[in-house]
């Protein structure tokens, strides 16, 4: 999309429709333009008016996301569904532009209504044009309203690129222009027009005349062409993750087929055709449990019982071959393969699956040990490490090692940093690495600092093109303001997105503390350094966590 814009209004009316109609017409004049209503009642008629004006051949069924009642009751679920619905609309249209129109006025007071619109604008990576009515406001009140709305939009992760003051008379327009004379973005004052109107067949023409008299097409396009650095919200990242997995489907084995959370996650993924799944366990028993849970897509999976001789016998032979130096015998191999995690790992080794996800009812050791023994590390990897993708409200960062290595040496810490940078790139993040310590660029001394600084030097030697700073404290790595004081002139400090912790204790505590206290979404751990992707689940994993982990495992298998 070369031009995408979200039309937001604190009132959800009072001139907002005129603005949406005018912006749509301006964009449609230079290319196919679609319409999307994230939150809209199926019975409202304004969306149809916009679709008729766009004349882009868009399927009306793709123009709306969720209904207002659903949005009020379930913001999180609604945001996820809105992102998916928007992607469908954009794909179906294949046009240059999209006009996204925020919530309508409602008799039901929702104290978070405008904030939800702001968050959705960030989810959809759309800049915002504000429509603020002046009928019951003087110019200074309009300005204060714009400032309050702008603050919420920026906190949510988007940006205001233009302001329309609606419902104007000549006096109101002059007062608004006076008050908004120092605005950093264009401000247009639009006359009061009733639109749409069942009583006036010329309402559309009058609305467009009023809009174009206030905001010439060139000015609107120029405002939309202003630089916009889109945020990546957790909902946007999750959808991109699922879409990437779906674009080149891989087969992921799930050894814990008797666990309800696993089969619920499997049903979600199968229903949306995101991955192919091989579930370890008895097919009939799992399908029956699925029916009891109200699941309907589990029959799309393949199932592998652990006592199937046609699979088990060659698996035993292969395990004996791989572990011959460790004295593996057929009897010991069969005993080993009674462990579902080991059996599932061997399915990957035998080429029946591209990756594995386990750990919802087994320990990390149960998942990692078989992988280390039979999948083994990549030729250039000295170790396996565990990273989390931390999805904050407006960006994604990598935290490592938070799962595997207790007290890494400088060499190991350097390899963890390089692996984590590779993980970041695999998920579309250009890495800026921070080697964390209690010292920033020599401010503190001690053997722990020496270790981190030695690791930093090794990274620079092994990966000279990698952006890195170390040793550095977390606040100086995270905050440009703190970095300006603690690490002035360092180009990476304050902009780190790959955080490498000095030991497992610090990393594990940090990711859990940030996850629980900030509300960040933690996806992972991603086990780095293995020949095939094997990823571990927390035993406290929710269904959404499992869905995300399976998807990221599939994406890893694509590389």
What would you note in describing this structure?
The chain is an alpha/beta fold and 559 residues long. The chain is built from 22 helices and 18 strands. The chain has 3 domains: 3-230, 3-Layer(aba) Sandwich (Rossmann fold), CATH 3.40.50.300; 232-376 and 538-559, Rossmann fold (3-Layer(aba) Sandwich), CATH 3.40.50.10950; 379-529, Isocitrate/Isopropylmalate dehydrogenase-like (Rossmann fold), CATH 3.40.50.10750. It is 47% helix and 17% strand. The protein has a 7-stranded parallel β-sheet, sandwiched between helices. Strand 2 (33-39), helix 2 and strand 3 form a beta-alpha-beta unit. It is globular.
Task: Map the helices and strands.
Blueprint: E1 3-8, H1 16-28, E2 33-39, H2 46-54, E3 64-66, H3 68-73, H4 75-93, E4 97-101, H5 113-123, E5 128-133, H6 139-156, E6 160-168, H7 170-179, E7 187-191, H8 203-214, H9 217-224, H10 234-247, E8 251-254, H11 260-271, E9 276-280, H12 283-292, E10 302-304, H13 309-322, H14 330-336, H15 340-349, E11 355-358, H16 364-375, E12 385-391, E13 396-400, H17 410-426, E14 432-436, H18 447-462, E15 467-472, H19 474-478, H20 480-486, E16 498-500, H21 504-518, E17 521-528, E18 534-536, H22 543-558
Parallel strand pairs: 1-4, 1-5, 2-3, 2-4, 5-6, 6-7, 8-9, 8-11, 9-10, 11-18, 13-16, 14-15, 14-16
Antiparallel strand pairs: 12-13, 12-17
Mean pLDDT: 93
Number of helices: 22
Largest sheet: 7 strands, parallel
Give the strand order, joined by hyphens, for the main sheet. 3-2-4-1-5-6-7
Total domains: 3
CATH homology-level superfamily of the largest domain:
P-loop containing nucleotide triphosphate hydrolases
Judged by helices, strands and strand pairing, the structural class is alpha/beta
N→C terminal distance: 27 Å
Tell me the total number of β-strands: 18
Strand content: 15-25%
Note the overall shape: globular
Tell me the CATH topology of the largest domain. Answer: Rossmann fold
CATH class of the largest domain: Alpha Beta
- Residue ranges: pLDDT <50 for 5 or more in a row? none
């Amino acid at each position: 999309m070369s031009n995408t814009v979200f039309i937001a209004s604190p009132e959800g009316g009072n001139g907002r429709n005129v603005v949406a109609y005018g912006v749509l017409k301006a964009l449609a004049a230079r290319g196919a333009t679609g319409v999307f209503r994230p939150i809209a009642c199926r019975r409202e008629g304004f969306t149809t008016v916009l679709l008729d004006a766009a004349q882009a051949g868009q399927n009306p069924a793709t123009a709306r996301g969720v209904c207002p009642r659903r949005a009020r009751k379930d913001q999180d679920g609604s945001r996820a569904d809105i992102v998916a619905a928007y992607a469908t609309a954009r794909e179906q249209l294949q046009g240059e532009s999209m006009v996204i129109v925020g919530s309508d006025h409602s008799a039901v007071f929702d104290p978070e209504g405008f904030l939800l619109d702001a968050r959705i604008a960030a989810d959809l990576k759309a800049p915002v044009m504000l429509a603020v009515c002046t009928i019951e406001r003087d110019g200074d009140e309009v300005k204060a309203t714009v400032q309050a709305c702008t603050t919420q939009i920026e906190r949510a992760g988007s940006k205001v690129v233009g302001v329309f003051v609606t419902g104007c008379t000549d006096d109101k327009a002059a007062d608004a222009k006076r008050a908004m004379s120092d605005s950093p973005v264009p401000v247009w004052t639009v006359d009061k027009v009733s639109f749409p109107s069942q009583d006036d067949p010329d309402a559309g023409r009058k609305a467009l005349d009023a809009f174009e008299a206030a905001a010439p097409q060139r000015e609107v396009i120029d405002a939309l062409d202003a630089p916009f650095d889109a945020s990546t919200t957790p909902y946007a990242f999750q959808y991109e993750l699922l879409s990437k997995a779906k674009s080149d489907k891989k087969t992921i084995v799930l050894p814990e087929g008797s666990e309800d959370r696993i089969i619920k996650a499997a049903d979600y993924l199968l229903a949306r055709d995101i991955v192919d799944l091989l579930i370890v366990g008895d097919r009939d028993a799992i399908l029956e449990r699925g029916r009891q849970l109200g699941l309907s897509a589990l029959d799309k999976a393949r199932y592998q019982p652990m006592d199937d001789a046609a699979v088990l016998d060659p698996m035993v032979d292969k395990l004996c071959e791989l572990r011959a130096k460790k004295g593996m015998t057929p009897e010991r191999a069969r005993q080993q393969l009674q462990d579902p995690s080991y059996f599932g790992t061997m399915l990957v080794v035998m080429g029946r699956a591209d990756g594995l996800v386990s750990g919802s009812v087994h320990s990390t050791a149960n998942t990692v040990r078989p992988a280390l023994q039979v999948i083994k590390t990549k030729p250039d990897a000295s170790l396996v490490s565990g990273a989390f993708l931390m999805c904050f409200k407006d960006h994604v960062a990598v935290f490592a090692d938070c799962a595997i290595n207790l007290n890494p040496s400088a060499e190991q810490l350097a390899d963890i940093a390089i692996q984590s940078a590779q993980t970041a790139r695999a998920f579309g993040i250009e890495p800026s690495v921070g080697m964390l310590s209690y010292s920033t660029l020599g401010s503190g001394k001690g053997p722990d600092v020496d270790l981190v600084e030695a690791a930093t030097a090794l990274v620079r030697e092994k990966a000279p093109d990698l952006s890195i700073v170390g040793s550095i404290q977390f606040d100086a790595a995270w905050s440009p303001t703190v970095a300006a004081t603690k690490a002035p002139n360092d180009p990476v400090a304050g902009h780190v997105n790959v955080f490498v912790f000095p030991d497992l204790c610090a990393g594990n505590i940090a990711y859990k503390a940030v996850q629980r206290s900030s509300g960040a979404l933690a996806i992972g751990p991603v086990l780095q350094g293995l020949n095939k992707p094997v990823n571990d689940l927390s035993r406290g994993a929710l269904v959404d966590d499992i869905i995300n982990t399976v998807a990221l495992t599939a994406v890893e298998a694509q590389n």
